[in-house]
Write a structure and sequence with these properties.
By secondary structure, the protein is mainly α. It has 2 domains: about 120 residues, Arc Repressor Mutant, subunit A, CATH 1.10.10; about 70 residues, no CATH class. The chain has 7 helices and 3 strands, in the order ααβααββααα. The chain has a 3-stranded antiparallel β-sheet. About 10% of the residues are buried.
Length: about 190
């Protein structure tokens, strides 16, 4: 029996709630790696409040899918992990990390759409919306700050399970503010009109 056999959960998640928790653990691990750079399963467990076996399992899953890699170390049983980065990237806020985050968001959204009917009845709806507003760069920044301020009262629940009210579940809150640029075809139409 190997260390991986000992750490591997014996039952794969099968309910929507367990799959949400699986995403929550992986997201928390990616956020932690973005914050501290290198972490072992034991360190992640201490910081996030999960078991070291659960963290070890999800770290290996993230590595298997190419999101993280083993960091150089000097032997021993501890396996430190870090985010995968191109050689030129020096911090996780680069385009590659943003693409990873967007990919996880899109994957989670599709997973929700595919399995919504398996969720308890009171959780079967979502509150998705989108809008286009004409803003200045300053207004766009203020809008982002207002959204972050609205979410602030709920942020500590991620790392403090006792702060969560009964019945609370992880909910993806995704906001993307970006200017809409003209498409090349729009540019050609404008040139024809001029």
């Amino acid at each position: 029996m190997t260390e991986e056999d000992v750490d591997r959960p014996t039952v794969r998640p099968s309910t929507a709630g367990e799959e949400l928790r699986e995403h929550e653990v992986r997201t928390a691990l990616l956020d932690l790696l973005a914050e501290v750079g290198v972490v072992t399963a034991t360190e992640a467990a201490a910081r996030l409040g999960y078991s070291s076996g659960l963290c070890s399992f999800h770290l290996r899953q993230l590595a298997r899918h190419g999101h993280i890699e083993e960091a150089p170390h000097r032997g021993g049983r501890a396996r430190p992990w870090r985010l995968c980065r191109p050689a030129a990237a020096s911090d996780p806020s680069t385009e590659d990390f943003g693409a990873l985050a967007r990919g996880l968001e899109d994957e989670s959204w599709q997973h929700w759409l595919d399995r919504r009917e398996q969720a308890p009845a009171e959780w079967r709806r979502d509150e998705a919306f989108s809008a286009v507003a004409y803003l200045t760069p300053e207004e766009m920044s203020r809008m982002a700050a207002m959204i972050q301020a609205a979410l602030a009262p709920y942020q500590d629940r991620d790392h403090r399970p006792l702060a969560r009210p009964e019945g609370a579940r992880p909910v993806a809150l995704i906001t993307r503010l970006f200017p809409l640029l003209p498409h090349p075809a729009d540019d050609a139409d404008d040139a024809d009109e001029g």
